Amino acid sequence: MQQKTHGACTTVLVGKKATLDGSTMIARNGDSYDVIVPKRLTVHPHEILDQEEHYDSPGNHFQITLPKERFRYTTIPDGEDRFETYPDAGINEKNVAMSATESIYGNPRVLGYDPLVENGIAEDCMVSVVLPYITSARDGVARLGKIVETYGAAESNGILFADKDEVWYMEIATGHQWAAQRIPDDAYAVVANQMAIQEIDPDDKDNFMTAATLIDFIEKHHLNTGFDTIHFRNIFGTQTVFDHHYNTPRVWYGQKYLNPGIEQDPISDNLPFLRKANRKIGVEDIAYILSSHYQETPYDPLGTGSEADKTAFRPISLNRTQDSHILQIRPDVPDDLAGIQWVQLAGTFSPYVPFYTNITSVPEAYAAAPRKLCLTSAYWLYKTIPVIVEPHYNAFLKQVEDYKDDLHSRFLGNLAQTDAEAAQADQERIPGILTEAGSRNAELALNKTRELLQKLTTDAMSLSKLTFNMDKNL
């Protein structure tokens, strides 16, 4: 099995009746094990090839034959190869969103009976071999599930799908076994590198999908830990000391933010997969969760708690969070305008910049991902913010929050204006209008980031510890 270079992500999924405007939303932090993995935004045009194409993953040589027709779709890759690697997330021309993956782990018992497959499908190519070929969220689960059953999986992973009506979360547990659950319209879920789906009902086809052999596999190997139910998390997942300090606290914090009235233990093994928030959820709420590091708790590494508390739990947003994305499918606009991909590069202190997904190109600063520091690249520009902010966190936090809030307000206004303009335009002009809107939003964000960095750098000079005030009479 190939060694994973990406992982440790955090996921949020929200049904359409749980959001402010009726959007479906799926979101995830794309973390890696390295501090620097430059990311970029791309858009692939609709293509009809002369023949089916043979795909060979550069990661572990997973191979599959791909259909001739490919829908337009966006991605956030970090590879420069012919076939992108780790494309993370996107929305296709059918307004189907996909994010891959949330790294999870099967327990030794289940993996003993169905080991992972060395050359099976892995996260480095899932978006590339699924998203361009699906017409609904349910279709995405079915396509990926069939691939896993046919070719095997090289890793245990969680995968997010959404269309304008449904949100699905899928978990690949072993080499060939998987299950998926539809997120109820009025509910949300937070997932953090641990098997999350709880009780499943394979007979409820509206809300669950599973591998064809899942129930037989459980029965054959006497795996069911329950009595009258099938509890996927308990059967296939882990509940270790590692989970209690690395995984469950992130779920606890996300649920604490959306349900502050519910008291829970951050190291509990029984945090629910699904919850109903105490209010309707906006893009801003998801952005807060995915950018968070246990603010206003003793566990904030940048806070005032004890050293033991500040280092007890892994935060949600890290210095190795390379990108974060919120994929929003909106119900109250024409289909050509429905898909919005909110992209945050380099983590906590960066803005989420909205891009329509019915576009023909992306801004040059977002399209480039150089391997070394280059301040014309969006990724690298945002990556410099924490270098200046973290040593002076309390002094600079207000400036950073004001910068992000101001940009978000402007983005919302720009989206409203673009929606109005595009709604009056001929259909063939719409992709150009939306492409230009993305360029304006990106340029606004980059200009404001340069202004912020200029101000923070100047202010930081007066905070140096290499200073001395001498009596003026000496």
> How much of the sequence is in beta strands?
15-25%
Query: Stretches where pLDDT falls below 50 for ≥5 residues?
Result: none
Oligomer: single chain
State the helix count: 14
**pLDDT averaged residue by residue:** 95
Largest sheet: 7 strands, antiparallel
Number of strands: 21
Helix content: 25-40%
Description:
The chain is an alpha+beta fold. 31% of the residues lie in helices and 19% in strands. It is built from 14 helices and 21 strands. The chain has helices spanning 108-113, 126-130, 137-151, 214-220, 232-236, 241-246, 248-258, 283-290, 307-310, 364-367, 378-383, 385-389, 393-423, 430-461; strands at 11-14, 24-31, 42-44, 47-48, 53-56, 63-66, 69-70, 73-75, 89-91, 97-103, 157-162, 167-172, 178-182, 188-191, 199-200, 208-210, 230-231, 274-275, 321-329, 339-345, 353-356. The strands form six sheets. Strands 18-14-1-2-19-20-21 form a seven-stranded antiparallel beta sheet. Strands 9-10-11-12-13-16 form a six-stranded antiparallel beta sheet, covered by helices on one side. Helix 13 (393-423) packs antiparallel against helix 14. The longest helix is centred in the last third of the chain and has 32 residues, at 430-461.
